[in-house]
Amino acid sequence: MSDTAPTARAVQQVRRPRGRPVPEDFAEVELALPALESGDALVENLWLSVDPYMRECMDADWDLDSPLEGRSIGRVTESRSPELPAGALVFHRDGWRTHTVLTAADARVLPHYDGIAPETFLGLLGGTGLTAYVALTRVARLQPGETLYISAAAGGVGTAAGQLARLLGAGRIVGSAGSAAKVRMLTERLGFDAAFDHRAGPSLAAQLAKAAPDGIDVCLDNVGGAHLEAAIGAMREFGRIAWCGAIAQYDAAAAPAAPRNLFDLVEKSIRLEGFLVANHRDVQAELEEFLVPHLRSGRVTDRLSVTDGFERTVDAFLGMLRGDNTGKSVVRLTPRG
Fold this sequence. Notes:
alpha/beta; six-stranded parallel sheet; about 25% helix
């Protein structure tokens, strides 16, 4: 082990955002890492995930001027833990930094699957894919032949859900996105049957009615607000809504008006259920068993929106909140090699 105390570059939050976050809400610092004790391992981060839920963390959950959390993949470089051997690739949640010291309780040694890149464990085989899989199989219980509507369909969870829904036998898959280019990507490359740009044309309700003229059976909603209202309006009797996020309200001074048609839940016997993927970690092995063969065959693709360089972590996060990404947004700390 080196005699020099290890350090890490880290991004910390230095003030609460006023509306949409800006670069000045963050600062890069140098952290002194503790010396390794028995059971510890030094990990060099290779990939960092930036996710919509982090916007809510900025308002209260994250302490100012302190290390932040986030899904990460790193390599063990030094170890005093037999469970975390040097060279092992690990998944952990000490994000927003270049290095960290972990114990076996803090990390998962990633399995090796031939032909599967490690960063996939931040995408389809990670929390993003698990969120989509849980939404479709555990919460909404999508059945073969049913029509599914996905809001924010060009994001990480949306692109995962569209591909998973096809594998699960959905009859028609409809998505909304924030640009014409994203709409084309959904229909031309990811197998969506129809998609629309929610920022263009008539109302959301009218666009959804055109894309799904016979109504929808299942909705995976990542947005809330008007998107959720439109989904309720288009829902068939006994429909199911898996509510994953509410990005429409994250930057708002006040939450948007609740859907004005909530009583339709009663009239049409619709089930609306919110969920946190953290409560479904037991499904991870099932997800891997289901998806790995399809990833190897190329039937599904892990769409990652990659930003290179630790110094651009904040750029990646703010860009994701603006909707600049298509697919899961990640930061690659080391150059492609």
